[in-house]
Amino acid sequence: MMTGRLLGERRAIRVVRPLLVALLGGAALLAAPLAVSGVLSSNSNRESQTMTSLPQAITEFFDASNRGDAAGMVAAFTPTAVLDDWGRHFEGREGIASWDRTDNTGVQAHIQAVSSKAEGDTVVVTVKVSGNGFNGTGHMHFQLRGDKIARLDIK
Questions:
Q1: Largest CB tally within 10 Å, which of 9, 54, 131, 137?
Q2: pTM above 0.90?
């Protein structure tokens, strides 16, 4: 017998995956492994948490950042990507590498995805950050082009 919580989790996965497939271009997204361990989305009464799937490029960004792999983190972006961190603007992989040295792997940041949702062509991930730089929660707004991150706005 399936519990109410498990049934709700399965419904959430059935809703989120097709939305991401439609949003991010079905074939590449369906071919990529989508489950990310430790990525949780809470319901409004916070009594249960469900696993949320993220596109591979976003998963690569988090994984490389958390293991201190600057080259791997930068490789998750398109060559002409833009990163805006609370109004500080970085362009291209060179600019993103500069941001990474001062605000991410360079300060041993650890980024934990807490929840995610699709908003138009953007995947918004609520994150909890810890390390030797910024510590706290925030939102990362990802726009993808193919299998890479084309824009990241941190708010």
A1: 54
A2: no
Contact 113, 38 (CB under 8 A): yes
Residue 123 backbone phi and psi in degrees, to 5: -105, 120
Residue 155: per-residue pLDDT: 92
Q: Is 20 exposed, middle or buried (0-12, 13-18, 19+ CB in 10 A)?
A: buried
Closest of 147, 148, 155 to residue 119, by C-alpha: 155
One-letter identity of residue 114: V
Q: Which residues touch 139 (CB under 8 Å, ≥6 apart)? A: 124, 125, 126, 127, 154, 155
pLDDT tens for each residue of 57-68: 999 999 999 999
